[in-house]
Amino acid sequence: MYFLKQEHHGFPLLLSSFYFYLLIKTKYFIFHFILILYLYPLFFLYSFDDTIIIDRILQSYNSTHSYFSGQSLDTSLGIRFNLILIDLYTIKENFFGGIPKEDIASLARINEVFPSVTQESHHCRKHSGSHVELLAVLVRQGVVLGILTIFSIFIFPIFIFFRGAFFENFSRWFFKCALIAVVCLLISSFGIQVLAYRMNVSFWAIFLCIYYSHYYRNKYVADPR
Fold it and tell me: Within a domain: residue 70?
């Protein structure tokens, strides 16, 4: 009971668990999924001190304003914007071939197109890599192979798991869980590199193999034709 009272963590945890149960057990999957998207921000706000949330919102606003007004380009948010610009430049310069993450153009060449990119942003991109997984894939593999990779690891799994969750007569809750996982990973890929390490890629490949094998095994048993 102490844990449930500590820092108001218990209420969001219990309510989140309840709605996740509804999400995978009831037929109103879409309704509950949308409902959870609206409720989780409320859980987040309820779980933390209001002053922390307000401070972070003000910092984000000030960083965005400072960046686009040209006053301060090396804020946390400004560096993230610059990393995206560097990736876009790299994709344009290496449209088909792709390059290793550290083999990017010089700062002088990038500044000819994007003057807002700073030395610190260029250093972060060269040594730490991209900040967006989708752009990182396009940088490494080029646009054609990159799009095929994105389709293979995100779009096709969503299609298969959506079919399993709504149009098949076996293990629907199983595929609803998988669908939630893929959608969450796809959303996260817009802000971080979710598959930057081989360990992450290996776990994701194992995850997809398990669910694909379950889907096609049951599909074959249900309809042997």
Answer: no
Q: Phi/psi zone of residue 98: left (φ > 0), alpha (ψ -120 to 50 degrees), beta?
A: left
- Asked, for residue 188, whether it belongs to a domain, the answer is yes
The pTM is what? 0.70
User: 188 near 194, Cβ under 8 Å?
Assistant: yes
Residue 162 counted as domain residue: yes
Domain extent, residue 217, equals: 136-222
Q: CA-CA distance, 82 to 87, in Å (whole number)?
A: 9
In DSSP notation, 170-218 reads S-HHHHHHHHHHHHHHHHHTTTS-TT-SHHHHHHHHHHHHHHHHHHHHH
Instruction: State the chain's mean pLDDT as an integer.
Output: 77
- Please report how the helices 198-222 and 172-188 are oriented relative to each other, as an axis angle in degrees rounded to 10: 150
